Write a sequence for this structure.
């Protein structure tokens, strides 16, 4: 079965790409993912905060108390090798490149413009085949206008693009007033792909401890619906690659996204729960389904159910809301 | 040959050479020599090779005794070997030094000479340690300056190889070991050229090897020992000449000529002084200045003190000499004079009697100077020369102090100055935490390395670890700087903290026309009148310039937070004129890039911005013609303080300790306790404020407070009459006290260090606003006055009766008055909460033996002492002997108490008729197991004393003096893991095995904290420490397990942050156990690279990961057929990684050697898992069978 996929200029042997997650911190896991059939890997995110503050925070705690007391002018051994901060991320890229044969997509996560953007270039120099720019912005300042927020995405993208010549994907959230407009602007400003969507982790409250709990809730197949809709809508409006992420737990989930128009599907939760080798299961199921349904290649399925391609484009729109509600039935509503 | 100019301190200079010419380095940390070992370790860790192309092996031993043993062994097997030490450390090496010299072994020990502890310990410099080694047969070579340290480190190495006589190469602790200077760095070629490889091969060939076996280290009898001992004579006879040869060779290679004795001064000098060490630099400055004024004076620098070459010495003295002044930097009570003085007399006497003296026998006058780094200035040198000019000069004089008991001290004019006008002299007052010293070291590097100027830096630190004040003394000038003394006439003074101007006259040491830079929140218009009258007057009188900057504002605006170092450094360069401003700014930026580029461009940019913004915010202030301020310098010590505090302690606090005369001091080093209460340091910006409504009165905040600065009290509400308006109280919870009693939680506003441990540990949350707790940090200044009144009122409320308090609970223990308060420990210290708890539980009947280390410094370093007394005048009696002998020292306490108790009991029996049989019987049979029992016994002793009062019999007098010993006393032996796991371990083991009723508290920080983070055997696997730069590869010694195997020792491991009640229980059980007890107390520490505010959380994580398994092992349980081992912590809840990577001591390895970090992490986890299994199996063992059968 021909599963070949083009993703922002990279030729991938299939559309299954593990998304940025803690799994990719470990070289062994990455090898397992490759062995299971992953066609590329998005490395875990390097955060703006890490670049700007982690090293200085470590520096602060290692040097605090120095030059204060005659008997202890310092508390740790002298060495120039410490405080390298994100350099370990760059070394990780090199190590992954060295021990795998699949494209490596480095992930950079931040919300402002500044020195951290220089790391895009360093990632490229370290051997990354592409970048995923994860702009994880949560607007809490009531003084900030919506347009400003959208502009900020483009400013960051342009700054990164100016620094590198490898492809850059932008991972966005789904909470824009106009996703199509935002997506097109990003395309105009040089994005080579859009990754949809980021999951904003929602905090919980612990009433026993009276504390805010930051816990992570992993996605389920139900969460697939949001990217599914927007990929279907955007597919025919956009020229650049689209990646669907969030809620990809089975081969059918992946196939649905591709049918909607995704070039690749990114997975995280299902691999965290089932382990790296689960990717192989999805891949096999996918091939099986395509075989059974007699698809000659994956390309035939791709975009076959985009908004424009389906019989009822309204199914992806507001009208569909009315229809869905009218058809809703359960034990209380009859 | 061109050589690099470098700016470094004496320790680094010595280590640089020593590392290049040795193969094995065995060390043990001791101030001020520790950095030499640390540099060597860092050089080896970085793969730096010696001149033969191989990386020296560096090993940290368990004591200086151990280090010298390892050195001896390495030498005996043929390795080029060295060590670095000082003071007691050198004394511990003496036995090996005799052997090494007796075996004619080539080696150099580099020693930063330090005071040997006598009436007090001192970390500072003099020659008492060096001179105590005179009889060992070692050559003693003195360096006087940083350049000389580098040069002599090499000359001594060449000489020891040539002569086979071992060398101590010494220089003055702190003054030379820590002074930063610009010097010429010897090249590898220089070093190679100086070292004769044939001699190296000869040294190696003398090494023990089974391929050519010999026997060395034999025992000899009276028939031969003596004559065999004399075999070394020829080696010593030629030694001085060979050293001179090495110096001559050095001069040919490098260009600097040294001699065994170097004369400086007028060739026709009549008055000549003789001395060695850094004081010679100040003396040289004085002599040259006096010569320029036409005075015929001179000086001799003694380089090679042993073997002492009479011929070379005599040759160095000008024939015109009439009076010789011999200066010793030591004191030998009871001697005919100090060593150098006696040597000079002997040489002159011998030469004279042999008719070899080339000049008339001069008068020889001896004197002492500079003990414990006491200042030695050109003014004092002038005073000495003036004394030598007298008809009857004062002999055996002292200089630099006011010795008003036997009037040995010389008068001198302290204003006499030899400072040259072309030297920029700058003083900076800063806080340890504000980076002033680091910035100044950086400035020295800039000036030293970027310009032709010479540069010198010396830094004075205080003895407090929280809020410590630093004073930096910087000199820059076109010529070499010989001023080995503090700046007294500064042409630039900077005060980096506004609150210093309330404490002392910061411009007192300013020269006329000097510039004063002040960091102040006040605007340029307002700042002048924030200065007190004396400061204003000084500025006006000296016609000074005043500049002001709000550095904290600039720091905040530029994202620097509270880091003001770059800003203040920029100000210095902008207005001091030491360099053209624009050039200086470029250099600062260059240094910023160098320092911070590895930490990210953002930090570099932030610092650049701070530099640029600084200039815009720096303002010159208009100075009025007369004093306009209405402020006086605030009174620091309250009127009701004891006389000693008012007359002596207060002076030490305001940097005037040098002025206190001898007669003001105790003759034997004994001081009144409880004096920290008079030193209100006000170092916290924020302090906790109590919310009575939210408080649940658990007292956990008081439990963890390292400084006893938050205190609960339960009391009768009638005591509230006359309470200050803002004094808070609330109905007391619980049933232990009468129902109407009230509770107050009071903060000591001026003693709190603002560490926030109390707030972090507070479990009560405000229901309306869960972000708030029962105590919340608020700015201190606005509430200082009111809280000061509240605290005063609080302290006067009667303490509860100890018999009524549930002592064995967290809540109850904290209602007992702390008898350890406001120590100088770090803000957020992990050790002092244990010491404070101990003082609450047993302080009124404890004698404490304290090993040298953090706890002896915050416990007993002048000016003030935290151990204090209760309302009855009782409290801990405390002493520190040494580092290595503390367990034995404490055992001595026990022996005395046991003997005296026994004798008192015998006397009670003897005198039972006079005492009354009932009282005698009660005294002898008293149950003192709890507070009531102790109280009752004290009452009986009181009665006993009344009965004995009129009795003049010998027995009665003795019983009267011993009566208090009938009351139970608790001996506590305190120290850190460096003592308990390493240097004191042998003694600790012996004392624990003695069966005596002693209690040991090991404050386990898992590293040498006081000397700056060296690895101990308690350091965990995987942690980075000095001498474990690649992470410690082996597990922490399980000392608890080792001592449990004795079976009769009470052993506990505790961590307050995990279970505070278990700590109370363990201490109570240890005290109650009539035998040896030891408690290992996990103590978070600044040397862990953690956020100290989260210290208790770190403790919790250490326990939850299984790293610090808590337990109590009580032999009394075994006697009852129960398992003595009770595990007090649950099976691991988190992984070792979860704990370790919270702390930078572990995490930093992931940044330098990630693969190794991972490997060590795995090993550590494996070790923990195995170890916990052993504990669990032991705790599950059935102990009942043996007893039932």
């Amino acid at each position: 079965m021909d599963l070949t996929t083009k993703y922002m200029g990279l030729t991938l042997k299939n559309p299954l790409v593990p998304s940025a997650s803690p799994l990719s911190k470990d070289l062994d896991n990455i090898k397992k993912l490759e062995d299971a059939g992953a066609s590329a890997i998005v490395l875990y995110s390097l955060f703006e905060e890490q670049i700007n503050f982690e090293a200085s925070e470590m520096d602060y705690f290692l040097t605090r108390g120095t030059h204060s007391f005659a008997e202890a002018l310092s508390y740790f051994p002298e060495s120039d090798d410490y405080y390298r901060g994100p350099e370990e991320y760059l070394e990780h890229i090199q190590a992954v490149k060295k021990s795998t044969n699949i494209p490596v997509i480095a992930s950079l996560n931040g919300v402002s413009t500044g020195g951290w953007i220089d790391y895009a270039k360093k990632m490229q120099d370290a051997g990354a085949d592409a970048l995923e720019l994860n702009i994880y912005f949560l607007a809490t300042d009531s003084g900030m206008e919506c347009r400003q927020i959208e502009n900020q995405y483009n400013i960051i993208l342009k700054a990164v693009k100016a620094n590198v010549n490898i492809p850059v994907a932008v991972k966005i959230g789904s909470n824009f007033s106009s996703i199509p407009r935002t997506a097109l602007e990003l395309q105009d400003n040089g994005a080579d792909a859009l990754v949809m969507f980021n999951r904003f982790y929602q905090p919980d409250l612990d009433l026993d401890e009276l504390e805010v709990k930051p816990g992570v809730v992993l996605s389920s197949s139900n969460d697939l619906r949001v990217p599914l809709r927007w990929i279907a809508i955007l597919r025919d409006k956009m020229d650049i690659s689209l990646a669907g992420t969030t809620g990809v737990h089975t081969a059918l989930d992946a196939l649905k996204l591709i049918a909607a128009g995704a070039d690749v599907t990114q997975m995280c939760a299902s691999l965290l729960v089932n382990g790296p080798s689960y990717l192989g299961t999805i891949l096999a199921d996918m091939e099986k389904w395509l075989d059974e349904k007699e698809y000659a290649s994956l390309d035939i399925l791709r975009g076959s159910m985009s908004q424009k391609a389906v019989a009822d484009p309204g199914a992806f729109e507001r009208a569909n809301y009315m229809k869905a509600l009218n058809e809703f039935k359960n034990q209380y509503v009859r | 040959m061109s050589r690099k100019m470098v700016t470094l301190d004496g320790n680094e200079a010595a280590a640089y050479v020593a590392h290049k010419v040795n193969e094995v380095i065995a060390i043990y940390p001791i101030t001020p020599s520790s950095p030499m070992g640390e540099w060597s370790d860092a050089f080896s860790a970085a793969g730096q090779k010696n001149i033969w192309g191989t990386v020296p092996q560096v090993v940290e031993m368990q004591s200086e005794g151990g280090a010298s043993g390892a050195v001896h062994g390495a030498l005996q097997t043929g390795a080029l070997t060295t060590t670095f030490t000082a003071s007691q450390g050198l004394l511990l090496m003496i036995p090996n030094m005799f052997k090494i010299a007796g075996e004619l072994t080539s080696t150099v020990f580099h020693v930063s000479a330090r005071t040997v502890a006598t009436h007090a310990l001192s970390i500072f410099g003099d020659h008492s340690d060096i001179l105590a080694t005179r009889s060992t047969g070692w050559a003693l070579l003195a360096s006087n300056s940083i350049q000389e340290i580098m040069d002599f480190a090499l000359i001594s190495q060449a000489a020891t190889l040539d002569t086979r006589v071992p060398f101590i190469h010494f220089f003055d602790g702190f003054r030379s070991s820590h002074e930063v200077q610009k010097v010429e760095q010897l090249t590898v070629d220089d070093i190679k050229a100086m070292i004769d490889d044939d001699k190296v091969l000869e040294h190696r060939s003398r090494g023990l090897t089974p391929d050519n076996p010999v026997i060395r280290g034999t025992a000899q009898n009276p028939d031969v020992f003596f004559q065999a001992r004399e075999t070394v004579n020829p080696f010593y006879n030629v030694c001085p000449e060979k050293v001179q040869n090495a110096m001559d060779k050095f001069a040919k290679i490098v260009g600097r000529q040294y001699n065994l004795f170097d004369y400086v001064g007028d060739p026709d000098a009549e008055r000549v002084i003789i001395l060695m060490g850094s004081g010679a630099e100040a003396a040289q400055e004085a002599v040259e200045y006096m010569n320029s004024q036409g005075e015929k004076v001179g000086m001799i620098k003694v380089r090679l003190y042993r073997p002492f070459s009479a011929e070379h010495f005599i040759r160095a003295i000008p024939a015109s000499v009439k009076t010789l002044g011999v200066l010793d930097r030591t004191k030998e009570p009871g001697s005919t004079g100090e060593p150098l003085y006696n040597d000079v007399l002997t040489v002159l006497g011998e030469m004279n009697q042999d008719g070899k003296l080339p000049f008339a026998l001069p008068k020889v006058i001896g004197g002492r100077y500079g003990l414990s780094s006491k200042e030695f200035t050109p003014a004092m040198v002038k005073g000495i020369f003036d004394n030598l000019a007298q008809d009857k000069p004062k002999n055996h004089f002292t200089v630099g102090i006011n010795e008003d008991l036997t009037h040995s001290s010389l008068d001198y004019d302290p204003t006499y100055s030899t400072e040259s006008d072309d030297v920029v002299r700058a003083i900076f007052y800063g806080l340890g935490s504000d980076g002033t010293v680091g910035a100044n070291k950086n400035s020295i590097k800039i000036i030293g390395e970027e310009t032709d100027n010479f540069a010198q830096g010396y830094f004075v630190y205080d003895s407090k670890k929280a809020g410590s004040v630093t004073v930096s003394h910087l000199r820059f000038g076109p010529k070499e700087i010989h001023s080995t003394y503090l700046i007294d006439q500064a042409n630039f003074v900077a005060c980096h903290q506004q609150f210093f101007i309330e404490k002392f006259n910061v411009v007192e040491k300013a020269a006329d026309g000097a510039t004063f830079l002040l960091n102040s929140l006040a605007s340029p218009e307002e700042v002048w009148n924030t200065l007190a009258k004396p400061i204003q007057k000084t500025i006006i009188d000296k016609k000074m310039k005043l500049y002001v900057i709000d550095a904290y504002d600039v720091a905040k605006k530029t994202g620097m937070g509270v880091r003001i170092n770059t800003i203040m450094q920029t100000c210095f360069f902008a207005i001091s004129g030491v360099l053209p401003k624009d050039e200086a700014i470029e250099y600062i930026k260059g240094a910023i890039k160098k320092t911070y580029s590895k930490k990210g461009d953002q930090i570099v940019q932030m610092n650049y911005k701070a530099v640029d913004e600084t200039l815009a915010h720096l303002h010159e202030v208009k100075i009025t013609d007369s004093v306009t301020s209405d402020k006086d310098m605030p009174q620091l010590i309250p009127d009701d303080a004891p006389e000693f505090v008012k007359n002596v302690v207060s002076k030490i606090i305001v940097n005037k300790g040098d002025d206190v005369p001898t007669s003001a001091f105790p003759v034997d080093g004994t001081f009144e306790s409880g004096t920290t209460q008079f030193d209100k340091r006000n170092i916290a910006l924020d302090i906790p404020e109590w919310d009575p409504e939210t408080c649940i009165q658990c007292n956990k905040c008081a439990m963890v407070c390292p400084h006893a600065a938050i205190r609960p009290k339960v009391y009768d509400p009638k005591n509230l009459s006359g309470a200050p308006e803002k004094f808070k109280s609330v109905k007391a919870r619980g049933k232990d006290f009468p129902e109407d009693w009230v509770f107050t939680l009071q903060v000591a506003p001026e003693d709190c260090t603002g560490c926030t441990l109390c707030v972090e540990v507070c479990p009560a949350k405000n229901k309306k606003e869960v972000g708030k707790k029962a105590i919340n940090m608020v700015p201190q200044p606005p509430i200082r006055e009111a809280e000061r009144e509240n605290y005063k009122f609080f302290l006067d409320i009667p303490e509860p009766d100890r018999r009524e308090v549930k002592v064995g609970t967290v809540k109850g223990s904290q209602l007992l008055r702390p008898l350890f308060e406001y120590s100088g420990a770090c803000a957020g210290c992990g050790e002092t909460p244990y010491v404070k708890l101990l003082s609450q539980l047993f302080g009124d009947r404890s004698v404490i033996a304290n090993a040298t280390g953090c706890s002896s410094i915050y416990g007993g370093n002048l000016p003030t002492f935290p151990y204090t007394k209760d309302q009855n005048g009782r409290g801990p009696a405390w002493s520190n002997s040494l580092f290595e002998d503390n367990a034995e020292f404490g055992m001595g306490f026990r022996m005395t108490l046991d003997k005296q108790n026994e004798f008192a009991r015998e006397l009670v029996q003897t005198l039972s008729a006079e005492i009354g049989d009932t009282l005698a019987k009660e005294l002898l049979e008293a149950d003192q197991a709890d507070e009531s029992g102790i109280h009752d016994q004290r009452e009986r002793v009181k009665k006993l004393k009344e009965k004995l009062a009129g009795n003049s019999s010998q027995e009665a007098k003795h019983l009267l003096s011993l009566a208090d010993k009938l009351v139970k006393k608790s001996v506590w032996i305190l120290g850190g893991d460096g003592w308990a796991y390493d240097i004191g371990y042998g003694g600790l083991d012996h004392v624990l095995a003695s069966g005596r009723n002693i209690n040991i508290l090991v404050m386990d920080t898992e590293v040498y904290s006081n000397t700056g983070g060296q690895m101990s055997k308690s350091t965990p696997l995987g942690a980075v420490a000095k001498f474990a730069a690649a992470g410690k590869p082996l597990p922490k010694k399980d000392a608890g397990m080792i001592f449990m195997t004795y079976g009769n020792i009470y052993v506990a491991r505790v961590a307050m942050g995990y279970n505070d009640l278990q700590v109370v229980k363990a201490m109570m059980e240890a005290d109650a156990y009539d035998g040896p007890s030891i408690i290992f107390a996990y103590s978070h520490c600044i040397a862990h690279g953690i956020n100290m505010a989260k210290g208790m959380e770190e403790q919790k994580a250490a326990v939850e990961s299984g790293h610090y398994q808590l337990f109590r092992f009580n032999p009394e349980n075994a006697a009852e057929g129960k398992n003595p081992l009770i595990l007090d912590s649950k099976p691991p809840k988190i992984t070792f990684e979860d704990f370790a990577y919270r702390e930078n001591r572990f995490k930093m390895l992931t940044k330098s050697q990630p693969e190794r970090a991972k490997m060590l992490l795995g090993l550590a986890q494996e070790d923990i898992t195995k170890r916990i299994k052993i504990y669990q199996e032991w705790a599950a063992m059935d102990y009942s069978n043996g007893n039932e059968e």
Chain B touches chain A through 62 residues (CB under 8 Å). The CA atoms of residues 123 and 981 of chain B lie 23 Å apart. Residues 1154-1180 of chain B form the longest helix (27 residues).
